[in-house]
Amino acid sequence: MTETGKVREINGNIVYIKPDSPDVCFGCMKEECKACGSITAENPLSLSLKAGQTVEVSAQTASIFRQALAVLVPPALGFIAGFFLTRIFLPTTGEGTAAGVGALFLFAAAYVIFKVRAKNPAEKGFKVTRIIGP
Question: Across 12-125, where does the E strand assignment appear?
C-alpha cells in the first residue's frame, strides 16, 4: 500500500505527512488521518527531507497481511471451538444451539482482540520510500 503526501513536520526519524487525497486513504480507514491530520512514517533510508516536499510512503504487504490474520483468525477459531465444544459436552443439542454457542465464542474472541488492540495498537509500519517533488 502506497500513499503520497507533503511533509508537514520532521522529528528525528519520524516524519508527519499530510496525505494528498485523504478521501481515498483506505489503508488506515482515515483513523490516523482523522486523529491527527497526518500520516506518521519512519525515514529508514535517511532521505534528506524538508517540510513541504512531496514524498511517497508505503507499508509492507507482509505487515498488513500479518495484522489481518491476527484480527480475523481468532474469531473464526472461536466459532469453531464453540461449535465443537458444544457438540462434545452436550451431544444431545442440535446444530442450532451449537451454532449459537459458536457465535458467542466468535464475538467473545473478537471482543478480546478489540481490547488487546485498544491497549497495544498494531504498528503502522509506514516508511518513506522516495521523494517525488520539492
Answer: 14-19, 39-42, 54-59
